């Protein structure tokens, strides 16, 4: 179920939350997406990947990760041949997903994503820093602001049966 947050709650909790991780190993496991929202420049919060986004974040004990976010409302291709998609189908597929993988590190109270591969090629070879809040079962972080000033927010929940690491 998607939680509803006010923009003030989102921004304040993530920006002001003290880093509660002593090691990236504490994030090891599989996480499911709870929310992929967007804080607009006026402070309001809107859905960024639709009303029911899907996502998975897998982190190993050394910090290697794979992250996928998908908008549930993406347009299905009319053809079974992916290469025969229309411009609208390709646009929906690309803008309705965000994936990247690489190495995650904890540095200066921030999560650093060292991105090796990404669905947005411009991110490859970059390091992105995230202010975050970690409660053991939930990870919430702010993505760097977009060119229009909006700030994406990702909220992940640890899958059941995976205890937080000491």
TrEMBL record:
Pfam families: Lipocalin_5
Residue intervals of the Lipocalin-like domain: 29-150
Protein name, entry field: Lipocalin-like domain-containing protein
């Amino acid at each position: 179920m998607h939680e509803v947050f006010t923009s003030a709650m989102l921004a304040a909790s993530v920006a002001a939350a003290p880093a509660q991780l002593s090691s990236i190993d504490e994030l090891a496991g599989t996480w499911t997406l709870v929310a992929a929202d967007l804080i607009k420049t006026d402070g309001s919060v809107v859905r960024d990947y639709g009303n029911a986004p899907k996502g998975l974040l897998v982190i190993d004990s050394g910090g290697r990760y794979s992250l996928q976010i998908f908008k549930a409302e993406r347009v299905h291709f009319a053809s079974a041949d992916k290469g025969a998609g229309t411009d609208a189908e390709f646009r929906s597929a690309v803008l309705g997903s965000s994936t990247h993988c690489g190495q995650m590190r904890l540095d200066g109270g921030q999560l650093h994503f060292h991105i090796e591969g990404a669905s947005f090629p411009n991110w490859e070879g970059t390091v992105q820093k995230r202010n975050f809040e970690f409660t053991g079962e939930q990870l919430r972080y702010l993505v760097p602001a977009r060119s229009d000033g909006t700030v994406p927010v990702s909220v992940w929940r640890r899958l059941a049966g995976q205890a937080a690491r000491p």
